[in-house]
Design a protein that fits this description.
Elements (H helix, E strand, L loop, with lengths): L1 H16 L12 E11 L2 E5 L4 E7 L5 E3 L5 E7 L2 E9 L2 E4 L2 E4 L3 E7 L3
Parallel strand pairs: 1-9
Antiparallel strand pairs: 1-2, 1-5, 3-4, 3-6, 6-7, 6-8
Length: about 110
Amino acid sequence: MRVRVIACALLLSPACALPNPTTPSSDGPWRLSGTVSTNTGAKVGGPIVGAELQVVKGVNTSARVWTDSSGHFVFETLEPGRFTMTVSAAGHPTASPVVDLYRNIDVSFALQPR
């Protein structure tokens, strides 16, 4: 019994010492950027040009951008908080990720063709 308690304490100690990476910051505005690509089975394919990314619920509602010729997008100035966005492109089903934005984030989306 004693060995189990010591092992648990050793396993939990490092986790307690780590900073919480999801601690919200009220500072801002923040930048959300990344890429949108095609997902072909188990592989990520080429970039999707002209994909639309729009915030549809929560803070930043109606913010909208499109991907460039490299599939890259940038929301330059978003307020911190939680929001739902849509990622849509012709020939692909729409994705609706929920984002908790409390720092600058770079994210990639991969949409599977229909």
